[in-house]
């Protein structure tokens, strides 16, 4: 008797869940978390050279610098517009970069506080962990030691990365280039 009513309760909950899904989110599972406002949580940013998954679209985090030669707001990732800043290094080479809160890259300590595009922050070169392509730079407060454990960088709110737009790629854009059927990408 008790197990029957429990089973009925379970069925009722299941039907309720299906009903709610049909009403609001036909393609999502019961356990799916709502995406962050205005962003697509599953937009992946890849290394353009090898396809390594470097970051999520939600890791993009604008860190403005007065050292930027220009700052524009014109590339859409996951339905929102993001900031691209143009910087020049002491050798006269210019780089368009997007800033990220975190990214799966190798950081090459010790950090250098000279010629920083972000006054008050030291930088290291950041490379792809799979193919070693130079993807950009990681920034940490200049008051920190020049060499720190990777987890200290990862866990801090005061660190960020600037990745070169030409060397990264959006996963959905890469998929469209490859003409991969939707059923293989999900
Ligand atoms: Zn790579």
Q: Which descriptors apply to this entry?
A:
signal, Metal Binding Protein, Guanine Nucleotide Exchange Factor, Chain A, 3-stranded antiparallel beta sheet, 10 strands, CULT, 186 residues, binds zinc ion, CULT domain-containing protein, 7-stranded antiparallel beta sheet, 33% strand, globular, 22% helix, alpha+beta
Task: Explain what this protein looks like in three dimensions.
The chain has helices spanning 2-24, 150-155, 171-178, 182-185, and strands spanning 44-47, 53-56, 70-77, 80-88, 94-100, 106-112, 121-127, 134-141, 160-164, 168-170. The chain has 186 residues and is of the alpha+beta class. It folds into 2 domains: 2-25 and 178-185, no CATH class; 28-175, Metal Binding Protein, Guanine Nucleotide Exchange Factor, Chain A (Beta Complex), CATH 2.170.150. The chain has a 7-stranded antiparallel sheet with strand order 3-4-5-9-8-7-6, with no helix packed on it. It has a 3-stranded antiparallel sheet with strand order 2-1-10. A hairpin with a 2-residue loop joins strand 3 and strand 4. The protein is globular. It binds zinc ion.
